[in-house]
Design goal:
The chain is an alpha/beta fold and 217 residues long. It is built from nine helices and five strands. Helix 1 (12-23) packs across helix 9. The longest helix is centred in the N-terminal third of the chain and has 22 residues, at 54-75. The termini are close together. This is Deoxyadenosine kinase. It comes from Marinococcus halophilus.
Length: 217
Amino acid sequence: MIVVSGMIGIGKTSVAQILGDGLDSKVYYEHVSENPILPLFYKADQQEINEKRYPFLLQLYFLRTRFQSIKQAYKDDDAILDRSIYEDWYFTKINRDLGNINDMEFSVYEGLLEEMMKEIDGLPYKKAPDLNVYLRGSFETVMDRIFKRGRDFEQDEELVEYYRKLWEGYDDWLENYYSASDTLIVDMDKTDVVHNPQDAEALVEQVKDLLQAKNKI
């Protein structure tokens, strides 16, 4: 099992699809289009956030759907996760740091996550990813790809500082909080798997080599 991680808009879904095709693996995509809370979260002003608690509700929604996906993926011989439960804690922490999630909500979230991870550890099949493919890019690359993706609710200029806050701490999350598997870091400033077939092929081969070294394929 492979998890694909990285900043909003950096290209996780495209990379997951390419790896799924190249490794003949099922891809579990992030729940976005059917997520009823995500547009509300992006469009809410601070008063609505304080009243409706959209950030907390959003992270609970992602926690539930991520837990569902990771249990299904662990049953497959081969699977790719477009983001995973391991990364959601970081988004919750950032929203806590920004004051969008309060300390009590953060404590409730961490308690739920801890119990879910205990459940995962007790599963009778694979218990951790074989590889994390981490997509790293400059803030300029992130913003350019968010703009080109064109989701209306992501385009508000007032979201720029939120994106910057997430981006600034992502490497720290990887280096100090993620320990579930080995990590392959992909420089997305120099890699375009969508428009350059050679980049896509090279990434698939690199992942294959790493998995073969681990005797996973």
